């Protein structure tokens, strides 16, 4: 032991005690998904607090020179028997009664119990030191090491913040209207039962307005059930904000909704407000489902959930390489589904998994913060099969289930989720997200991190050509833009079961009038060919400013593919807004084909003999009460306007500029959009923005024709040397940094974001001898090269699709189906099984790959 004591003494200066703010990785290996529960446990560096599995700890020791590691090993305890456990299987699961996670009555979150073994291991000889061994060592060694061990074990791990602890969806704020609510003395008295909507006679989902005592039906739900929105209309007409749901009133309270605050609220004076209309809260009994119960029911809705998850079938569990499940970290199923599909694409496999050793060898000192390292780690975890093992039995003594469970140990991508979500207002949270938005977010991160070398997102990148034809002059304009996802419209008027839908609507209305239970909704069947026809048909543009006619006119816009990617992603636009602007999901079935031929949608470019619209800006708009000033400004005077420029400063529609800015577009781009569309409105400006988003000078200040610089700027530009140095330190040239600052009005944060979103343009820049890029030099007349895209035949085959269950992308659940060796496989978080009936008609995102002949 003296030898170990001496080794500890020699490394004592490298052993740190965690302080507040230190990142302690004691749940997950930085380079793999090993954890304290894995075979071999987890080794935590006692200097950097990085965790490593047994297969990577030697690598870290060799590279860093660190010798002291805290080894943590956990063994799962058998669950305790309780009164509800019959001893012949899993304990019966209680039905949730509260819209919450991790608290009594809410959705259950499994809390594992472990036996833990902790010791210090000294490398390279792997000498072990336990707490008992420390007691015999010198005080300075014992105190320092014991303090470090205790600090590491008590510190919150980085993943702790990502784990679901408690969430209560029933916590409600007190309404600001409740205390001083005005109640009318109109003599209204509400009977204890027999209520009906005053407008449509509906007898359920009824709400009494707490200001005037009038009773109306509630909102209509996405599937057509619920009410007819009469309570909402009454608020819009009167402004009376609070209503209570009749049938939910008990001595403990009732459901109160504030239309003004658009949320369920608390009314501390509810007994007083009810008694004003003759209702004694202490004698009332519950006869209706509360809003919480309805939300829980929606989150357990049969129909769609059962079909998409194939719950009615006995599914055969699968395991092995490429068949690894992913743990749900709390509403992370959108991430799980997207990453499962992406690592089926060969480009992502070769970029990150085939080169994993090279990526790990080049990783920085803290690999937990390196994008390439964490993506490679996730890809290897999904494809290697190392973590594709059946989950342990619920406990010893329990009889095996007669049906296979399909659950795997799987991988928990906590480190990956934290990295890709860092700084993002949505993906950094534990809330449910839109899988399509996450896919685009991840592709954007790949683009930023692949400045050089192979870029796997090119597999999805394609060019869209938009052809606009002026109906007055018959001249055309062609623009191209980059896209990654094809958005497919859903023409509800093309349903093939219209008669059945009408009958279902009549049955619903009859049930509403008679008080009978609402019948099951009927799903609309939309042909895929109708969706494609809606995509390809020309769009009419009204108030189009024609540069040929120099006036507003009508135009038609046709959208076609200028290139076909290797992999085509199709998003079915199921999520929309109703006439009342309430988000809703279209309950549709679409016969999506296994093979797809888009050849007919190939763009043809300018036709023979076709004339193009001239590139002339619309005339600047002036108002009589605006003082006219020339671009030359101080070079003229009021008496002699001979030196004034004939081009007058434009008056831009501030409301249109503001609307575009609120959508997230740069201010200067919005100003140019309004200027070049002649103040013709938001639609025309939006079309200009979409057609010029990929222009190198998209965010550059507005430069009027005939001038060399934007209004308010001088021809000689001056940029902050500090800003230039910051961008150059990121690996960019000074010329590239100057270009970024010029495009963003010398704002560093915007310049950094701009430079990462214009990598393709920057890669093509050639610096000339004069210090300016060839693209910017006066002698250059060649347009900057466009983004790199692949092209080939437009024939595809379906290989994966992601499905969503629930009423909105912000709630519900995602699963994905992937075709592996001619067998459809369902990936439902940790469950990986052979699919018996893949619900291809109910998908949300479809993934096709090119068919090579």
TrEMBL record:
InterPro entries: Papain-like_cys_pep_sf, Peptidase_C19_UCH, Ub_carboxyl-term_hydrolase, UBA, UBA-like_sf, Ubiquitinyl_hydrolase, UBP13_Znf-UBP_var, USP. Residues 74-98, 386-407, 496-520, 767-792 are annotated as: Disordered. Keywords: Hydrolase, Metal-binding, Protease, Repeat, Thiol protease, Ubl conjugation pathway, Zinc, Zinc-finger. Residues 324-851 form the USP domain. Residues 651-692, 718-758 form the UBA domain. Residues 768-777 have a biased composition (Low complexity). Residues 500-511 have a biased composition (Basic and acidic residues). It catalyses: Thiol-dependent hydrolysis of ester, thioester, amide, peptide and isopeptide bonds formed by the C-terminal Gly of ubiquitin (a 76-residue protein attached to proteins as an intracellular targeting signal). GO terms for biological process: protein deubiquitination; proteolysis. GO terms for molecular function: cysteine-type deubiquitinase activity; zinc ion binding. This is Ubiquitin carboxyl-terminal hydrolase. It comes from Salvelinus namaycush.
